[in-house]
Amino acid sequence: MPPNSKPKAPKTRLPFLEGIRGLAALYVVIGHICSLSDPRFIAGRISHSPDWLQRVLSVFSYGHLAVAAFIVLSGFCLELSLFARENGVIHSLKRFYKRRAQRILPPYYVCLAISIYVGITITSKQFGIPFEQYLPIDQNTILTHVLLVHNFSLDWMYKINGVLWSIAIEVQLYILFPLFVLTINKLGRTITLVAAGLIAYETILRVPGAPKLYPWYVPLFVGGMVAAHLAFKPTKIGRLPVLGSLLTVLCIGGACYSTFREWPIFASDLFTGFAVASLCYALTGSQRGPIYRLLIWKPVVVLGTFSYSLYLMHHPIAQILFANRPGWAVGEVNMFLYLLSCLPLILIGCGIFYFFFELPFIPKKSGTPQPESKKHAPAGLPLRPYAPK
What we know:
Largest sheet: none
Distance between the termini: 31 Å
Mean pLDDT: 88
Structural class: mainly alpha
Helix content: 55-70%
Radius of gyration: 21 Å
Number of strands: 0
Low-confidence stretches: 1-11, 366-389
Oligomer: single chain
Order of helices and strands: HHHHHHHHHHHHHHHH
């Protein structure tokens, strides 16, 4: 470095993060297509579908694992953004909360309004599962969704739009994010992660109905933060992408084992979440290999670009398509083939929603990042900005 030059902030646009988001969102969409095709199977009841279809449905019946991945990615990306601008600290709570609200809330409230309309005009006219779990749509369910506290009770949690419960949890984690940042910077990564795990453990033990509050999302969110913090502030040993890859494989194995052994849901969520955190850490330090190439494949990255809109809006769009199905779409097999053929329509509809209701509210980059002092400069990484061709 020339003697008079100043250290520059690292370039932190990592296209593989969009790839993970895109694949996770697509998995959730196909999972809900399966739930509309054969709700008996998804609900754990006796299915009348042929064996081949039940095998397909079984692959896409673990949508909670995708949500766990989203939670980790949120923690990772928020911590990553601090090193891009503010040396790993939050200098303005007002600015942080304003940017988060601007990014998350406008698309959420537009989606909520559309979902209420679809719920009244379509969902209420359907019968049985899965539609019954989205009803009733009344003053209580609407108000709790507006206030983003509908995850506090099963009477509100899955009403109106079956995916919005996780948005409430994410918003609550965003509120706590500055506290986690302070704890990591003051007490260290290990203490913060262990404390988050103990909070989740005590909540599961002592709070009635705690499993449906998903308290283990706290250590998952913090785990994502810790992975990003390790990438930019490595230990004295340095960055260890090989170790990250090894942990990814071990955690994926743990997720598969805990799922097939039917352990409590938090076990597979934790394994999956920490697999994603380890993968993000590994790919941040060493961007190569077939998984990396898949995650930066342009269609997957594009999918991830509007993954928030895809996650929000696929549910009401799928219900509209279900209610207006053609006459031949009768029975589990034909319904599955029909809805699967409608997947491009769902993607297009969510893309239009992104263009009008998400993209205009994405905070613009506020100029060139300020140079860091030598004391606080994050470790340089082998990153390159992503520029779609």
